[in-house]
Amino acid sequence: MVTVSASVNSIIQAQVPDNLRGRVMSVYSLSFIGLSSLGGMLAGAVAKLFGASLAFTVSGILALAATLIMARKWHLFKRQQEV
Fold it and tell me: Integer distance in angstroms from the first to the last C-alpha of the chain?
């Protein structure tokens, strides 16, 4: 987790223009740190109501779906940059 976090942080800062770096890093920090607390509360509520196995299953499916959606958007973005 530490390696991924440091790598993503470095990649973002290297790719973003200087005049936007602060704004981009604030959005990254909000999503990386702030939304994990919200997701933890939601997963805890689902686990309390329906059981831990369903909470893990739903979380995994949502993570996989988000990854596939972002990969598709990234592919389309890179294709558009080449044209």
Answer: 36
Q: Which residues contact 46 (CB under 8 A, 6 or more apart)?
A: 54, 55, 58
Q: 83 and 74 in contact (C-beta within 8 Å)?
A: no
CA 57 to chain centre: 18
Domains of the chain, residue spans: 2-82
Give the model confidence (pLDDT) of 66-82 as tens digits: 999 999 998 998 888 87
Three-state SS for 22-61 is HHHHHHHHHHHHHHHHHHHHHHHHHHHHHCHHHHHHHHHH
pLDDT at 32: 81
| Diameter over CA atoms, the chain | 50
